[in-house]
């Protein structure tokens, strides 16, 4: 029997594998099989590229959600400010024909919900800027784009739905 530095060689002839080694070996084989089953594209269809794409997609979705929320909050706030300023423009320029409370005088009521030229903010802006053939004067020159946007916002926020 050979011996080096106090370490003894196992007795030859007795070929039993130590229990610990056997457990470790079988454990590793089982792990390898489970791993192969789970992560081979041929079995479960799992691929690293797929996983990467999914991750990117969820992060992009989170980002755009966040972005949208921000833009929305901003524009709502802006609309409120615009409407508040538009109120003064309305009283000075529009109330004579459309009424103090948008109830209509010479011009039609502007409370909605139905509008001849459309109920969207853009529709109001267009009509107020260019006017119409039937009595609505164009205010493009007189007020400029900013004030027109404000007064359009004011009307828009007063819509009945
Ligand atoms: C001289 C009177 C007069 C003044 C001043 C006037 N409007 Fe008008 N407005 C009208 C008439 C009349 C109509 C209907 C036009 C038509 O049917 O083509 C109208 C139509 C409109 C419409 C379209 C309504 C619809 O049903 O689509 C809007 C919006 C509007 N006016 C907003 C304004 C705003 C804002 C101002 C002030 C900046 C203003 N108007 C000032 C007479 C006036």
Rg computed from alpha carbons, rounded to a whole number of angstroms: 38 Å
The total beta strand count reads 2
Question: What order do the SSEs take from the amino end to the carboxyl end, as H and E?
Answer: EEHHHH
Ligands in the structure?
heme C
Unreliable spans are: none
The coarse silhouette is rod-shaped
What about the largest sheet? Answer: 2 strands, antiparallel
Beta-strand residue percentage: under 5%
CATH superfamily of the domain at 73-157: Cytochrome c-like domain
CATH topology name of the domain at 73-157: Cytochrome Bc1 Complex, Chain D, domain 2
* Structural class estimated from helices and strands: mainly alpha
CATH class division of the domain at 73-157: Mainly Alpha
C-alpha termini separation: 99 Å
User: Going across the major beta sheet, what is the strand order?
Assistant: 1-2
User: Helical element count?
Assistant: 4
Arithmetic mean of pLDDT: 86
Description:
The chain is mostly helical and 161 residues long. The chain has a domain at 73-157: Cytochrome Bc1 Complex, Chain D, domain 2 (Orthogonal Bundle). It contains 4 helices and 2 strands. A two-stranded antiparallel ribbon has the order 1-2. 12% of the residues are buried. The mean pLDDT is 86.
Helix and strand topology:
Layout: E1 3-4, E2 7-8, H1 19-39, H2 48-98, H3 121-130, H4 140-157
Antiparallel strand pairs: 1-2
Helix pairs in contact: 2-4, 3-4
């Amino acid at each position: 029997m050979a011996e080096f530095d106090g370490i003894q060689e196992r007795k030859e002839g007795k070929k039993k594998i130590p229990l610990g080694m056997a457990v470790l070996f079988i454990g590793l084989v089982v792990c390898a099989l489970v791993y192969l089953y789970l992560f081979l594209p041929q079995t479960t269809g799992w691929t690293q590229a797929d996983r990467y794409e999914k991750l990117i997609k969820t992060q992009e979705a989170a980002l755009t959600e966040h972005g949208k929320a921000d833009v929305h909050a901003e524009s709502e706030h802006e609309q409120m400010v615009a409407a508040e300023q538009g109120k003064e423009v309305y009283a000075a320029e529009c109330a004579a024909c459309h009424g103090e409370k948008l109830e209509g005088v010479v011009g039609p009521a502007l409370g909605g919900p139905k509008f001849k030229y459309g109920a969207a903010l853009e529709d109001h802006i267009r009509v107020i800027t260019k006017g119409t053939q039937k009595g609505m004067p164009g205010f493009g020159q007189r007020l400029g784009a900013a004030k027109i946007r404000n007064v359009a916002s004011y009307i828009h926020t007063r819509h009945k739905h």
